[in-house]
Amino acid sequence: MDIFKIMQESDYENLIFSQDKETGLKAITCIHNTTLGPAIGGLRIWNYESEEDAITDVIRLAKGMTYKNAACGIYAGGAKTVMMVDPEKNPKTEEMMRAFGRFVEGMNGRYLTAEDVGSSEADMDAIYQETNFVLGTNMKPGTSGNPSPSTARGVYIGLKATCKEKYGDDSLAGKKIVVEGLGNVGLCVCKYALEEGAEVYGTDINEKAIEKAKEAGVKIINRDELYSFDGDIYCPCALGATVNDESIPQFKYDIVAGSANNQLAEERHGDILKEKGILYAPDFIINAGGVIHCHDELYGGFNRERMQVKVDQIYDQLLKVYEIAKKENISTNKAANRYAEDRIRKVLGTKKIFNRTVKASINPR
Fold this sequence. Notes:
The chain has a six-stranded parallel sheet with strand order 8-7-6-9-10-11, with helices on both faces. A five-stranded mixed sheet has the order 1-2-4-3-5, sandwiched between helices. The chain is of the alpha/beta class. 49% of the residues are buried. The protein contains 13 helices and eleven strands. The radius of gyration is 20 Å and the shape is globular.
């Protein structure tokens, strides 16, 4: 793996390896871009098959966070951390989280961590024992807590905007929505859709998640039905890369819109969706509710009403992206990239102005 070549292609700033033999910590932090502010990105804890897989994942996710944070209008750059664990041989522990917190502290505010796949509020609380550069704990004044409901709220708002673009009406009533991944975010999206009268189907590899979804009124389908199901909306809320060469030919959906990161296995798959007439809600636009939620802490303490106003703006942001796509006759993922890059480019232009001391949201004055 030619790491420097990969970093130079998309101008990554840092790739940081952190290990602690005593606790078993193995973490990789990638900071992609800090033009808009300190880099924010969650801590993903996963059982990776190899170090190369972990590096590939963290690099993709960090860039996605830069674009997500730029597009949703917060004052933050993009980063991510992946922590390599083995549930049997090397499970996550409090001491592992605290060791990681000390490494975060050593980055001196270039990176703020938060909850992500595999990590929890309790993990953020442990990290907070070693650093202030963590969002979403339950322990410090003005904290935002669990961001999952806000991620789900943003996906729900995004589904409505995407229906408005596709059907001319933003109602979910009567729509057949298939949700892949029935965890904290996916199940909450299901409940929003059910309340609006949608016909909601779901699948998950976790039996407990399936049982909770059944209780909420979700109709369960087998995973082998997922891609070929005759529905209106495919809502991926698990891991990424499910929109690929194998799945797309099976799609009967009108819309792909969900919370998963990196839903397109490759950028070209956005073009294929466009050719098939399937409207894709770019993942880093529609799933930004969680980072908006966490970032709100930096406005002098978390305010739920203020945060929700910003989450609900995802509706208009998606409509702007769809307008760019139509105007320039490009796929929606390319339009979303341009939307985010335009904000970064404009702010980068101000960097030429001399400033003796740099103000930042983590150190206001």
